[in-house]
């Protein structure tokens, strides 16, 4: 079968379309899935370009959606023909984060082989059902970006109607934030360097947009839009270079979800400002399987579909990563067989 593998030490020119052995039939408690599509995330890019070292020959990609082809002995949760989507932390079934999810030793496309293969055989706990009526390409956006937004707003943020959320950029997480906020009756402020993207975000349901090129101290605009109070929740995707502005923007007692490190992995935190705001700064990485099932149920109930910017063949994965690096996308970038 075909798979996209990475030769150590990484680099987009080290991604190969390889012929590897078929995984065979599922054993007890396992399912065999024909993968239809995957979606790109920043974590996948860091593995592919060598920023996160992994084993040579690693099959890439954490996200995967497809069709169940066979079920092993004792499997009752899935049946042949079901559409399913993978889990980022297959070992984390429910409950709060614990030591088992420290690092990425069990994350597909990093510590273990990923979803950029025509077929995979995994334990049933590594997948959930996909939303009814969704294509595999749509479903592949759930695993990382969609679930991250869901956990930040619902599981951890406890967003309620009328809350004001600020999200940075217009990538997959931020677009999912807009959609979930609309579902919950919350308002959203979006930042971007592109007025065109801000206009698109507005049409999708964002309440306000801030161009951070025009307003370099964009926290001032966020405070103005909230009558000086500050926003209730911030989806912090930038990291060190944006964190101070986020803390300036948050209301007293607000919640900042630290999700991304697009501007680097190390940096200073204005601790006195954070203390003065009495805000909660919480790091989070995706979510658990139970949360993914809840998210899928919410998507079905509200008839929401993801925004996909571009879809390429799996064989053009390196080209898809190059497009991701350009920052031109609005929503998700996907690859499919």
TrEMBL record:
EC assignment: 1.1.1.-
GO MF, one example: oxidoreductase activity
Main enzyme class: oxidoreductase
Top-level taxon: Bacteria
Residue ranges of every copy of the Enoyl reductase (ER) domain listed in the record: 10-335
UniProt KW Hydrolase keyword: no
Keywords per UniProt: Oxidoreductase
InterPro entries per UniProt: ADH-like_C, ADH-like_N, ER, GroES-like_sf, NAD(P)-bd_dom_sf, Zinc_ADH-like
Pfam families: ADH_N (PF08240), ADH_zinc_N (PF00107)
SUPFAM superfamilies: GroES-like (SSF50129), NAD(P)-binding Rossmann-fold domains (SSF51735)
Protein name: NAD(P)-dependent alcohol dehydrogenase
The species this protein was found in: Microbulbifer echini
Organism phylogeny: Bacteria, Pseudomonadati, Pseudomonadota, Gammaproteobacteria, Cellvibrionales
């Amino acid at each position: 079968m075909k798979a996209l593998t990475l030769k150590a030490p990484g680099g987009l020119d080290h991604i190969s379309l390889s012929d590897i052995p078929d995984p065979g039939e599922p054993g007890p408690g396992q399912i065999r899935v024909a993968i239809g599509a995957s979606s790109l995330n920043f974590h996948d890019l860091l593995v592919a370009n060598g920023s996160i070292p992994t084993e040579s020959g690693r099959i890439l990609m954490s996200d995967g959606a497809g069709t169940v082809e066979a079920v092993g002995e004792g499997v009752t949760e899935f049946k042949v023909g079901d559409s399913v989507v993978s889990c980022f932390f297959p070992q984390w079934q429910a409950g709060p984060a614990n030591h088992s999810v420290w690092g990425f030793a069990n994350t597909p496309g990093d510590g273990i082989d990923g979803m950029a293969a025509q077929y995979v055989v995994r334990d049933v706990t590594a997948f959930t059902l996909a939303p009814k009526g969704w294509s595999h390409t749509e479903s592949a956006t759930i695993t990382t970006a969609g679930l991250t937004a869901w956990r930040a707003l619902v599981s951890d943020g406890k967003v309620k109607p009328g809350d004001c959320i600020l999200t940075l950029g217009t990538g997959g997480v931020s677009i999912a934030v807009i959609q979930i906020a609309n579902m919950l009756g919350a308002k959203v402020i979006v930042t971007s360097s592109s007025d065109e993207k801000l206009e698109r975000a507005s049409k999708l349901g964002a309440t306000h947009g801030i161009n951070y090129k025009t307003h370099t101290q964009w926290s001032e605009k966020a405070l103005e839009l909230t009558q000086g109070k500050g926003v209730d929740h911030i989806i912090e995707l930038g990291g060190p270079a944006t964190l101070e502005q986020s803390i300036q923007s948050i209301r007293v007692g607000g919640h900042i979800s630290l999700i991304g490190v697009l501007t680097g992995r190390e940096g200073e935190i204005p601790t006195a400002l954070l203390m003065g705001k009495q805000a909660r700064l919480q790091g989070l990485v995706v979510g658990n399987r139970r949360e993914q099932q809840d998210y899928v149920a919410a998507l079905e109930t509200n008839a929401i579909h993801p925004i996909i910017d571009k879809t390429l063949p799996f064989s053009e994965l390196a080209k898809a990563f190059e497009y991701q690096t350009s920052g031109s996308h609005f929503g998700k970038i996907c690859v499919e067989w």
